[in-house]
């Protein structure tokens, strides 16, 4: 008996067996009791609910009511309108796509022409000219400091000597 209480896994197994036995005994008694049956919900005749449809249980012997032609016509009209709108948006999107493709092709052609012009100019000017301006040089040094590694990781040497 002490062995069962010392081993928690065995204790869980014993408890599970006992509860399953009691559930089987009480399950047979629960099946004998009859449950009350629900009445199906019927919609009110005066209220029109366009978004929600009434819930009905269809029996095998019961025939489905005929759908009025007005309802069918309304559904077909709405379907045709939505289909037409979808086709219009599709056509407009295709037109936009074609326009963008034409624009990208023209930009590529212009850039290729521009690069060709640069090639022709480079053939004429074989000597590169490096004109350095003081302002551009100062901006380059500033940007090198900004984009370089942080100074905390690499402090100035003069600061180390003072310490």
UniProtKB/TrEMBL annotation:
<keyword id="KW-0812">Transmembrane</keyword>
<keyword id="KW-0472">Membrane</keyword>
<feature type="transmembrane region" description="Helical">
    <location>
        <begin position="6"/>
        <end position="25"/>
    </location>
</feature>
<keyword id="KW-1133">Transmembrane helix</keyword>
<protein>
    <submittedName>
        <fullName>Uncharacterized protein</fullName>
    </submittedName>
</protein>
<keyword id="KW-0175">Coiled coil</keyword>
<feature type="compositionally biased region" description="Polar residues">
    <location>
        <begin position="27"/>
        <end position="54"/>
    </location>
</feature>
<feature type="coiled-coil region">
    <location>
        <begin position="76"/>
        <end position="103"/>
    </location>
</feature>
<feature type="region of interest" description="Disordered">
    <location>
        <begin position="27"/>
        <end position="62"/>
    </location>
</feature>
């Amino acid at each position: 008996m002490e062995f069962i209480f010392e081993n928690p896994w065995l204790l869980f197994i014993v408890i599970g067996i006992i509860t399953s036995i009691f559930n089987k005994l009480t399950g047979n008694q629960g099946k004998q009791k009859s449950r009350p049956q629900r009445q199906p919900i019927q919609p009110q005749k005066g209220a029109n609910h366009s978004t929600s449809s009434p819930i009905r249980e269809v029996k095998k012997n019961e025939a489905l009511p005929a759908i009025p032609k007005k309802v069918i016509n309304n559904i077909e009209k709405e379907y045709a309108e939505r289909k037409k709108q979808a086709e219009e948006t599709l056509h407009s999107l295709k037109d936009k796509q074609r326009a963008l493709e034409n624009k990208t092709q023209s930009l590529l052609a212009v850039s290729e022409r521009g690069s060709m012009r640069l090639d022709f100019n480079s053939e004429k000017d074989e000597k590169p000219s490096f004109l350095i301006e003081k302002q551009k040089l100062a901006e380059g040094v500033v940007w090198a400091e900004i984009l370089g590694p942080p100074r905390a990781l690499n402090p100035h040497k003069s600061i180390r000597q003072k310490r």
